[in-house]
Design a protein that fits this description.
alpha/beta, 4-stranded parallel beta sheet, 6 strands, 23% helix
């Protein structure tokens, strides 16, 4: 399936190592028929109008990821894979000695620069967002403009209390307007 020239793209950050979890939580089943959180996200995003999904993964996890996630998703929506690796880095930056973990969100998004050609949304592979988040994004992304040489961006936010778990520690960012 080919992505629409204008339909938004969903970038799924799935390169995390799951060191605290003890494995690749992004591929573990959570649904009654073996669905992963990613399956639910892609389903909701497709219904909202997303035309392509780009998975940001590590090269060493590609075979497992394609086997457990990709084979189901690829038949439903235009799908691409991008490897988040330590290099290339912007001029003037070097990989610190001993570093082997992928960089953070900005680096993951930068890895997609040659694949993502439409307005896009970025999600974590292991977080559940719900259908309304994707609908809000798909409705709003086409309205973003560039003003005075600066691009506009958007963020779907949640009440902090609604994102906390009774089952252990979670890290959350707080956005102030």
């Amino acid at each position: 399936m080919a992505a629409s020239d204008t339909a938004p793209t969903l970038v799924v950050m799935a390169a995390g190592m799951g060191s605290r979890y003890g494995g690749l939580k992004q591929i573990d089943p959570v649904g009654p028929h073996g669905e992963s959180v990613i399956d639910y996200s892609v389903y909701d995003a497709r219904r909202a109008g997303v035309g392509q999904v780009v998975f940001v993964i590590r090269r060493d996890m590609e075979d497992d990821f394609r086997e457990h996630i990709g084979r189901r998703i690829e038949g439903q929506i235009d799908t691409a894979y991008v490897h988040q690796e330590l290099e290339p880095l912007p001029d003037g930056f070097v990989v610190p000695e001993g570093r082997n973990k992928p960089w953070g969100t900005a680096h993951a998004v930068a890895a997609c620069r040659n694949v993502v050609l439409t307005p896009f949304a970025v999600i974590n592979a292991d977080d559940f967002y719900g259908p309304s988040a994707f609908q809000v994004l798909c409705d709003h992304l086409p309205t973003l403009k560039e003003r005075e040489g600066l691009s506009e961006y958007c963020l779907v936010g949640y009440l902090l209390a609604n994102t906390l778990s009774e089952h252990g520690h979670v890290s959350r960012g707080v956005c102030d307007l």
